[in-house]
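During the second half of the funding period, the structural biology subgroup turned its attention to how the target accommodates small molecules. The most pressing case was flavin-adenine dinucleotide, which had performed well in the primary screen but for which no bound structure existed. We therefore specified the complex as follows and requested a full 3D prediction, including the ligand pose.
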Amino acid sequence: MEVFVCLRQTAVVKEEPKIQPDKKGVDLSGLKRHLNEWDAYALEEALLLTQRYGGDVSVISLGPKEVEDVLFHGLAAGAKKAIHIFVPEREQIDNWVIANILSREIKKYPFDLILTGAQAEDDGCAEIGATLAQLLKIPHASLVMKVIYEPDAKSIKVERELEEGYMDVLRLRLPALLTIQTGINQPRYVSSLRLRRFKKAGTILRVSFDELISEAGDVYPKKEVVRLYPSRPEFSKVEMLGGSPEAISDQLIELLISKGVL
Amino acid sequence: MRGKILVIVEHRAKEIREITWEILSGLKSLIDNYDMELQAVVLGHRIDSLVGELAESVAKLYYIGDEELEFYTWERYLYALIPLIEEVGPKLIIMGHTSTGMDLAPRLSAAMDSPYIPDCLNFRFDGEDLFVTRELFGGKLNSEIKAAKNKSYFLTLRPGIFTPKGEKGQQKQVKGIATAFDKKGFLTQFLGLLEPPREGIDITKADIIIGVGRGVGDREKVKVVEELAKVTGGVLAGTRPVIDSGWLPKERQVGQSGKIVKPKLYIACGISGASQHTIGMKKSEIIIAVNNDPHAPIFKVAHYGIVGDLFEILPAITSKIRSVKSPR
Ligand SMILES: Cc1cc2nc3c(=O)[nH]c(=O)nc-3n(C[C@H](O)[C@H](O)[C@H](O)COP(=O)(O)OP(=O)(O)OC[C@H]3O[C@@H](n4cnc5c(N)ncnc54)[C@H](O)[C@@H]3O)c2cc1C
Ligand SMILES: Nc1ncnc2c1ncn2[C@@H]1O[C@H](COP(=O)(O)O)[C@@H](O)[C@H]1O
C-alpha cells in the first residue's frame, strides 16, 4: 500500500502572534515551528498501515525552505520519500491553490491512500483534505479515528468522528483520501540524534511551486486576507483577580462562598 | 445585496441539529440590511415531521427525499445538491462548521468551482464583494477575508455563536426534489452509525467541574488539579489533547467531540480556549480560568480570570479551601 502524507509546518505561538506591517500576514521570524499537531497523527497512521500491510510512505510539504524540517522528521520517523514543493518567499498561499498544487504533484506517482491532518493549527480551516480529494476525484472521509485495510476488496473501512461521541462507519474504495483526527494513535518519538542524522544524509526531492503553477495555468486564489488584528479578551467582560497566589485564593473563595458554590 | 441564501440542513437520529437552528436565526440578523431570501434544503428519508418544522423558519424549503439519503455521506449529498444549487442559483450556500460541514463544504464548493471560507464568525457584503471574519491561531487573531468575485460562495459558520430564537412563522412552501442516483457507482458506502459509549462517570451531571488542559504538562502533574477537585467536591474533565495523551479517560472530554457540560462552576486550568473546547463549557454558570498567557482566548468566555502559573495558583486555592472547610 502506497501512502502519501501531506505535512504542514506551523508556528508555535506562545503569546500573541506579531502581525506584519501590511496587516495581511503574521511575522513568523523568531517563532518556533513544528509539524502541525494533526499531521503527526496522519504520519503515524501511514507508518502503522505500511508496517502492517507493506508498502511505503511518502511525505510532501509545500512552503519555504524551513518546511524541510518537517520532511526530515517524516523521513526520520520512517517515510521513504520526501517531496518539497518549494515556495521562494514565506507568502500567504490560498488553500485552494495549495490543494491544486499538491494534487498536481501527487498525481505523478502511484498511490492507494493520501492522509492529511483534519485541520491546520494555525488557520484551522479543515479545508485542504476534502478539496484535494475532489480535485483527484477520489473518495474521502474526514476526522478519521480508525482505519482497516481490506486488500482483497481494494477498499478501506473507516470510522469517522461526528459530534458528542457519535461515529460513522464507512467503506471507501481505494484510492482514497482521509483526514486524520488526533487520538487515533500515539505518534512515535523521533530522537533529536536520529533527526540530525537524517538532516545530514536524508534526501529530499525538490520541485518548484512556480513551475507547477505555470503548468497548471488557471489556478487563482479564491480568497484573500484583507486585514489581521488581535482578538483579545475583553477585560470589561471578565473580572481578573490579581495579587499573590494567597491574595487570589482569598478573593476567589470569598466569591465562591458568596455565589453559594462552596 | 439581493439574492438567495441556501442553508444545508443537518439532522441526526431524526432530529434537526442545533447548528441548523443557530444558523437560521443568526442569518436573520446578518441579512437584515440586504434584500435576500432565506431558503433551506433538507436531504433524508422519511423525515416528514422535520420537514414541517423547518418549513416554518424559511421562505422556501427544498426536500430531497430518497432512501439513499437516510444517512449523510459526502457523495450522496454532493450528487443530490449540485443540480439543485445549479437550478436555484443561490448567492450564498451555508452550513455549520461541524463534522458534516468540514466533510462536505470544501468538496462541494470545489466541485462547483466556488470560493469557500470555513469557520466564519459573520459575513457582510460591500457592493458585490463578500467579506467574512474568522479566527486564526486558536482564537488569538481575527482575520478579515475577501472572497474572489463569483456568482456564488460557500461558507461554514462556527457553531455556538448564534442563539436559536425558536421563532416560527407560517408554514411556507415545500418543494420536493427527486433524485436519480447511480447506486452502483458509489465510492463511499455507509455501514453504520455508532452511538456514544455509555461507560464511566457522566460529567454532564456534575455541579463542579475542574477542567484539565495541556498546560498541566504531563500525566503526573494532573494530581495538582485533582487535589482541587477533591476539596471542591468537583470532578475532573479535560480537553482533547489531555484525553488523546491518556491523562484522563475519554468519557471526561469536554467539547465538540466530547460532552457538553453546564455545571454551576467550571475551573479551566491550563486550557487555551479553542472554540471546539469552549462550545462544550461556555454555558457553565461560573467560569474561572487559570492561564499564564494573558491573551489566552479562554479569558473570552471566563467570568473570572487568573493570569499565572497554575502550579502556584492551584495549590494556594486548594489549601485555602481546605482550611476554610475544616477550620481548626
Ligand atoms: C473536529 C475537532 C473536534 C475537536 N473537539 C474537541 C473537543 O471536544 N474538546 C477539546 O478540548 N478540543 C477539541 N478539539 C481540539 C481543539 O481544537 C484544541 O486543540 C484543544 O482544545 C486544545 O487543548 P488545550 O487548551 O488543552 O491545549 P493548548 O491549546 O495547547 O493550551 C494549553 C494552554 O495552557 C497554558 N499553560 C501552559 N502552561 C501553563 C502553566 N504552567 N500555567 C497556566 N497555564 C499554562 C497555555 O498558555 C495554553 O493557553 C477539536 C478539534 C477538532 C478539529
Ligand atoms: N503547505 C502544506 N503542505 C502540505 N500539506 C498541507 C499544507 N497545508 C495544509 N496541508 C495539509 O492539509 C491539512 C489541513 O489543512 P487546512 O485545510 O489548512 O486546515 C493539514 O493537516 C495538512 O495535512
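Two results from this model are relevant to the next phase. Chain A has two domains: 2-216, 233-262. Residues 233-262 of chain A form one domain.
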